[in-house]
Amino acid sequence: xxGTIYILLAVLFGAVSIFLQKVAxxxxxxxxxxxxxxxxxxxxxxxxxxxxxxxxxLPSEAAPWLILLFASFxxxxxxxxxxxxxxxxxxxxITGIGGVRVLFVAILATLLLGEAITVERGVGMLVLFAxxxxxxxxxxxxxxxxxxxxxxxxxxxxxxxxGAIIDKFNVPNxxxxxxxxxxxxxxxLFFPFVFRIDFKKVRKIARxxxxxAIAGAATSGLLAYYFILNAYLVMDVHIAYPASRVMxxxxxxxxxxxxxxxxxxxxxxxxxxxxxxxxxxxxx
Length: 284
What we know:
This protein is mainly α and 284 residues long. The protein is built from 13 helices and no strands. The longest helix has 27 residues, at 62-88.
């Protein structure tokens, strides 16, 4: 029961974060806006760690810290790829394409963590994936693959899937809120060393009209990540992560309502409803 509650909260905050990320990048400059996103998330995460975290049982061994560092570096690229994909394609398209993570995570959880996927859960996973796919079809199932935003989304989905497996394995070694905050702090610290950052553009974004959307995306994204990490502590990752992807369905609805993305509306709503049914099968 508690795992389902964590999933529902992750879906709620995750959908808001995805929607606000799209709002923020509509004007372009995904690189610098993603950096500001990481900075805001790191600042909010540090505040929550100070207020809520128990830091008395942090691991003394080097291995968990090195794994956390590696996962955080994956997030640098995965997060930037999501911003770039949203800059180049409709929100409803990108969130659906991201459904390929469901299959990536299932395969990796079986191969690397030894999680057993039952027939019922396997069917639920396929139904969820089918729903997300139907929501994003063009004239044929692969009609959008030439879109650079879709290509970024698929690559980002692969990186996030590896990150989910690492998180499931490593988060029991840490306080979840601390682990969550590090997922933003490490990218914020190393981002300027990985990419060429123009700090004049960063200051302009911080003072501009998109800052509110970026701040909302970062804080809601941080909370979504926190709740999914807690779900990993009580559920298998091949259940928790795919079920949390219902956030893509809610983000799709927000895109239809507030961004006017009404192309192929009936098909996308049918796909969304199918995805919700698949998620329900997973967590039932």
